[in-house]
Structures are given as C-alpha cells and as structure tokens.
Amino acid sequence: MKLVGRRFGLMKQVSVRQNTVARAFFSDPKAIAGLTIFVLLALLGLLAPVVAPYNPNAGIFTPLQPPSYHHWLGTTSTGQDVLSQFVWGTRNSMAIGLAASLMSTALAVVIGMYPAYRGGWLDDVMTSFTNMFLVIPGLPLMIVVAAYVRATGPVVITLVIALTSWAARARVLRAQTMTLATRDFVVAARLSGASHWKILSGEILPNMLSLFVASMMYGTLGAVLAEAGLEFLGLGNVNSVTWGTMLYWANSQGALLNGAWWWFVPGGVGIALLGTSLALMNFAMDMVSNPRLQGQRKAKKRGISPANVPKPSETH
Amino acid sequence: MRYVLNRLRFLLVTLWAVVTINFILPRLMPGNPALLMIARFHGLINTQALHALELQFGVTSQPLWVQYMGYLNNLVHGNLGLSLTYYPVPVTTVIANSLPWTLGLAGTATVFSAVVGTLLGIRTAWRRGGALDSTLPVATTFTGAIPHQWLGLIFLYVVGFTFNWFPLSHAYSVGMTPALSIRFILNVLDHAVLPGATMVIPTIGGWLLHMRNNMIQTLNDDYVVFAEAKGIRPNRLMYQYAARNAVLPNLTSFAMALGFVVGGAVLVEVVFSYPGIGYQLVNAVENEDYPLMQGLFLMIAVAVLLANFLVEIVYVKLDPRVRRGGNGE
User: Fold this and answer.
1) How far is CA B167 from the centre of its chain?
2) Chain B 62-101, CB below 8 Å of chain A: which residues?
3) What does CATH list as the number for A2-54+84-255+267-302?
4) Predicted complex ipTM
C-alpha cells in the first residue's frame, strides 16, 4: 500500500513538472518561432493537394520562366511549375524525414534504452553493437547500401536512413536510462509489480522526455538532410517530387548555366527552414531541461547531463 | 595498458564488421546486383579479371565461407581488385590518387571550422547575453541546417557564374600539370576556396554551440569562481582556467571529425567536381564500379576507426578520470 501511494505521489510530481516545462517552453520566443515555422511547413505539406496550383509533374508550361504572377517560383527546363513542386516536395520530404526519424528512434529505444534498463549481458552486447555503428560513417554507408538496392523509392530511402542513423540516439538514450534505472521511483515501480515495458514507458520515458524529444528533432533534421543528399546524388527515385530531387534536377539540367536561380533556391530554403525550426525548438528545450543554460549564473545543480546539442562530428 | 588493449580489440572488431558489411551486402540483395555489372563488362575485360570479379562478388558455386576466406585473404594482401571505370587500374591506385585532394580540402576546412567555432564559442559563453551571444547561436542554427550541396550551388551561381571570381569546378585548371610551382599552388588554392567555404559555413555552428554549452557549465564550477575571487585576470581565467577544461569534449569531436574528413565531403566534392574520395565514390556508384566503391568505403571507414582509436588513447592522457572508468565509453 505504502509503495503504491508513493508511486501515485511521484506520478503527480512528474505531471506537475511537465506542466512547468511546457509553460517555460512556450514562453520562449525561440520556441514560438520554431514551432510556427514547423506548423506552417507541416500544413503546407498536409494540404499539398489543395494548395499546389498545378500538377508538379506536368511539363505543360513555357520552360525556364522566371517568377511571375502565374508562376510564383517560375518554371523548370521541362516546363513544370516550381511552386507546385516545392509544395509537394514539402509533403514528401517531411513525410520521409519524420518516418525515418520515428523508425530510428524506435530502434534506439529497443537497442539503447531497453538493454540499459535490463543491464547484464544484453546491455554489453548492445553497447558494443551501438559503438560499432557509431563509428561507421553514415552517408557513405547509405550511398553503398542505396547503390546495391536497385529499386529505390521513398520507402527504401526511409529504411536506409533509419537503419544507418539510430546509433547516436541509442547512445544518448542509453546513458540517460542508466542514470534513471536505479532511482527510487523505478525500484518502487518494479517492486509493485509493474512490467518492464510499463516501467520504461510510464516511469523512465516521462522523466527523459525533453531528451527524447530533442533526439527526435535532430533525428528528423538528420533524416531530411540525408534524404536530400542521397536524392541529390541521384540515389533516390528521381521521379518522385521532394526537395532533394528538385535539387538533383536543377543541378543535372543546368539550372546554373541558364541562370535559373528560382529553380534551385526553393528546395534548399525548405530544408534550411525546417532545420532551423527544429533547432530553435530544441534550443528552447535545452534551456528548459538544463537550468545552467538559463542565464542566471547561480543555478547550481549537480548531475545534470550536458546539453542535448549533438557533437559537431555527428550532425552531418 | 589494459585500457589500450581494450580499445585495440574494439578497433579490430569494428574493422572486421566493416569488412564483413562490404562482403555481405552485395550477396544479401535479391538478384545479386554484381551479376548485372559483370554481364555488362563481358568481353570488355579479360577473362582472368572477370573471374576475379565473380569471386569478389559471390557469382560462384563455392560455399560462402570459402568465398569469405578468399575475400579476407585478398584484403590482408592489400588487394582490392581492379577498378572498372579506370580499367585496368587497381582500386588502390585510384584511392591513392584521390586521397590527397580530399585530405587537403576537407582537412583544412575541418581544422578551420573547429578552431574558429571553438574560439567563438568561448567568447559567446564568456559574455552571456552580450552582442555575440544574442546573435551567433541563432544565426548558426540557420547555417547549420543548410544542406551542403545547396550552399555549394548558391556559391557557384553567385560567386562563380555571376561575378566570375572563382573557378567553377575541378581541383586545378585543365591543361595544367601538377608541379611544385607557385603558379600551380596558387591555382589549386583558387580552386579550393569555394568548396572550402561550403564546408566551413554549415559546420562552424556545431563547434560554437557545443563549446558555448561546455563553457557555461565550466564557468559555474567552484574552481573558476574561486579563481575569479582570487583576482585572476579575465583573459587568463577565460582561456587557462575555464576553456582549458571545457574544450575536452570538443577535442574528442575534433579528432573524430578528422576521421570523418575522408568521407564527409561527398556532396561538396560532387557539386564542385573535386577529384577526391567522395567524388570517386559517387562516380563508382553511377558506373556500377562495385570494386572501386567497396574499396573507397573501406578506406573511408578505416579513417574514422583509426581516428576514433587515437582519440581514445590520447584522451586518457588529457583526462585522467577516464583511466579509472575502465571501459572508456
């Protein structure tokens, strides 16, 4: 009885903490700016069939027109409307980025968090496995895998990215899980008979939510960048409309030679905007979860993990 | 000593994993992609080379472990096969020819980016809320999200095409022969400016933010506060006391980044047709030159693994706490 009562008390504490976290997050102008950009891009992508003025693949207009009233972002060398391509590209790129990020986070949970919580030989094996994948360079590995897989499409690209990018996240999540796994409230939950997955999802995960969300955000950014890279190299399905294939066609069809800046600028701006919005939100998240970064030099708490910013060598 | 052996074991196991990935990937794919490649080169290359290709990519009736042993044996003897794009040049020669370009370009860019970024990080953390601190972190979040290939295209368009300030592609002008003359070196530098800038701008923010956050943590430490109270001069306090400890994680990242130099410039090299490792890798993929692709991937991975190994050895010297930790995460 005592244990159960204690557990309820702690759960209450957790939810109270989350409220203040949310309030702190939404009072940060950086977070608001990031969230606004993200929501706008997401809406653009979701409403692509309604918003896009033309069929993105239909090459029915005068080629290489500069931006005009009828074509806000001009046309390509095959007479496609660039704005329509951008709108559909937003939808496809974001979908692939989010899906790949979700998948690799799931892998990170299974390979990083769960073994860290259980400990023992499973943890040893998985840690070595993670460390190995951590040092195998990502983009070259993706290129090699994509080169062998001949029928590439959005699904394959998503899989390739997810399977090659989970390691950094698994490591971060593992480290945090290790520090939480021996805390009193986890032990209490275990004694009260909760199942392992329940403890992981109900006790440990809520206490590392900011880290978890941050790792999702960086994962999405990394996935969108990786996707744009692979497709720029012609390793995706070049007939699908994404930010990456827009850059691929612009580059291979000589947009530069023709001075068609309106053709290659939008794709990159899209990626950079999405990346900035994720980074801004993450920045704010960092402030919330790491009191030392909040400006007052007095905040003195020991044992808080360093900021969620990934190591520079891991970002690209 | 036990620590070093531990790290050495990890190096060898990872190396083995990379080699095995190279071996198993083409055999794993439905309808072995190497078959197509070999069919394409039938009649174009001599039978002996064709047979070697078949062995290398598993188009044979030998059991898998015999193939594997043969593959490992070849690798140990430094035999990576012949490149098909540049037939009959060995893969090792192609790698040897491209490596200096990548090392020179991406290496310089990485060192520059890390040093400048770290220094800026120290300054921004020192003046919390100052002019640098309120602009740089936000500005670099934007630059950090810019895809390399896109920035390269923008540079090409603006600085290359419109103003004609810098050459558009390749490592040196067509018609020049590599020589140790001032004219040639200047030509090479001229060609390296745009791709170099393309690599520095998106990466500098990571160093800055990381250093800033480390620095803020260290500035709160008791020994820094005490030193400040003792009246240590600000500059000395900033660099000799705080930055010196705060830079440790950045040093690790830096050494790792040096390892990633070899394979990290793929996109930029492709945009600028710069004849380095990454450009060759993409070329090999486009030409279905699998032996060259495997060799390049191995080279890229080995660079990272060695850098990682060296970091961990050097880190023990810099941070004695690791020695007690034992397994050195």
Assistant:
1) 24
2) none
3) 1.10.3720.10
4) 0.82
